[in-house]
């Protein structure tokens, strides 16, 4: 993006911020089976954990619409990483010394506050840096979330293999070191004076704009389509397909993150030459296909391929909508825009995985005997319900193409 070496450290801190976000969102799902086995947590409770995580982020997004400009971007970024480090540390400690489910909830609340702040503050910091290829820069920034997700899955899986499920609680504490380090990075890196560069639009102006309303709905659908598959891929591989945890994590959520990272990196390099509306329609259609492969094809390799390739399908959805709407305001829309879009995306991130878990649990409640085949079918029904989100996205992008391309 920017060739100004003055802001290289800033950009690197933002990349680490999105890796932190990947840890916050994707670490706990790798422990879902462990939580079930050690703490007797059922599918509905797992779904509620995911929902709770993103409800907290949504509340933070909503509050930051007003307060990010008051607190400032540096204070907000530092605070985000303090909460992320604290929550991850607590995840390794609290379930061992109190009611496990309550301990997990408290930990997730803390690091979800950090995640919500990261969503609000990092994108506008990068958006304000000097440079012309801002769409590409935004996608490249979000690719670090994908690579972070992949790193989290691989390293966590390796550590679990070495130390065993019994000592799982060590892993969140190890991951807390990254946001702890980034606290000190954001305390000193140079930042553009965003307040001088940006205009301030009120919430009402955005909500009266048909293009923004559709963009907000698209953010909801993109978050739901991405996280429904990402959050449940590990458990689906192990319980739904009967694949050992190590292989399931590497072939499911890890490859999902790999393909998502590939898509975002490609757009980061060639984004200026890509029509984002056509790309979003293609991504939505491809994501629907991946969901259908995962749900309806009984062969484990094909179902896993559907999980993994879904990452490529959802890759452009979130960064594409951020850059598309920011472009309409000549990249000077102020913090309200990113807070509202983050709110919509996090709302989708909560609804998608929750719906998957809820539908799975409803199906299981109708069965007298829970076998491996019944459990597999339950998760497939849950993922099928989540396939409505990329379908809605396909329809909404078609609507967006017909709207006046201005606010």
Map the helices and strands:
Layout: H1 8-26, H2 32-39, H3 43-71, H4 73-97, H5 100-128, H6 134-163, H7 170-175, H8 177-188, H9 194-197, H10 203-207, H11 210-240, H12 245-270, H13 276-296, H14 300-314, H15 317-328, H16 335-365, H17 372-386, H18 388-402
Helix pairs in contact: 1-4, 1-5, 1-6, 1-8, 3-5, 3-16, 4-5, 4-8, 5-16, 6-12, 6-15, 11-12, 11-14, 11-15, 11-16, 11-17, 11-18, 12-14, 13-14, 13-15, 13-17, 13-18, 15-16, 16-17
Quick structural gist:
The chain is mainly alpha-helical. The protein has 18 helices and no strands. Helix 3 runs antiparallel to helix 16 (335-365).
Largest sheet: none
Distance from N terminus to C terminus (CA atoms, Å) equals 26 Å
The percent range for strand residues is under 5%
Count every beta strand, where a strand is a DSSP E run of 2 or more residues.
Answer: 0
Count of alpha/pi helices: 18
Residue windows where pLDDT falls under 50 for at least 5 positions: none
Element string (H = helix, E = strand): HHHHHHHHHHHHHHHHHH
- Which percent bin holds the helix content? over 70%
Shape: globular
Mean pLDDT: 82
**Structural class category:** mainly alpha
Radius of gyration: 20 Å
């Amino acid at each position: 993006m920017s060739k100004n070496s003055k802001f290289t450290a800033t950009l690197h801190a933002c990349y680490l911020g999105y890796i932190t976000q990947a840890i916050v969102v994707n670490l706990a799902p790798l422990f879902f089976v462990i939580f079930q086995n050690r703490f007797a947590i059922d599918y509905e409770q797992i779904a509620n954990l995911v929902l709770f995580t993103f409800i907290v982020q949504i509340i933070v997004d909503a509050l930051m619409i007003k307060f990010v400009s008051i607190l400032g971007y540096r204070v907000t970024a530092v605070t985000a990483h303090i909460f992320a480090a604290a929550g991850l540390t607590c995840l390794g400690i609290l379930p061992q010394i109190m009611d496990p489910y309550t301990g997990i909830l408290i930990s997730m609340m803390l690091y979800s506050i950090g995640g919500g702040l990261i969503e609000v503050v990092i994108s506008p910091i990068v958006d304000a840096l000097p440079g012309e290829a801002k769409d590409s820069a935004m996608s490249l920034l979000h690719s670090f979330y994908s690579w972070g997700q992949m790193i989290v899955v691989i390293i966590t899986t390796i550590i679990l293999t070495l130390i065993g499920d019994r000592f799982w609680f060590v892993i969140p504490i190890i991951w807390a070191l990254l946001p702890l380090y980034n606290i000190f990075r954001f305390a000193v890196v140079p930042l553009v004076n965003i307040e001088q560069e940006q205009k301030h639009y009120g919430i009402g102006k955005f909500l009266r704009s048909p293009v923004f309303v559709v963009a907000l709905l698209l953010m909801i659908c993109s978050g739901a389509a991405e996280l429904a598959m990402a959050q449940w891929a590990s458990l689906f591989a192990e319980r739904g397909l009967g694949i050992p945890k190590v292989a399931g994590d590497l072939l499911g959520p890890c490859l999902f993150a790999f393909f998502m990272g590939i898509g975002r990196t490609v757009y980061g390099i060639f984004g200026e030459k890509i029509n984002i509306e056509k790309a979003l329609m293609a991504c939505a259609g491809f994501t629907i296909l991946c969901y259908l492969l995962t749900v309806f094809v009984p062969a484990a390799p094909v179902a896993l391929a559907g999980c993994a390739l879904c990452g490529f399908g959802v890759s452009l959805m979130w960064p594409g909508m951020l850059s598309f709407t920011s472009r309409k305001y000549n990249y000077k829309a102020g913090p309200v825009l990113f807070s509202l879009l983050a709110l919509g995306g996090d709302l989708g991130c909560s609804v998608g995985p929750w719906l998957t878990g809820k539908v799975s649990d409803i199906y299981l409640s109708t069965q007298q005997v829970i076998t491996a085949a019944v459990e597999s079918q339950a998760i497939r029904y849950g993922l099928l319900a989540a396939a409505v989100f990329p379908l809605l996205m396909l329809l909404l992008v078609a609507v967006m193409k017909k709207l006046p391309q201005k606010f």
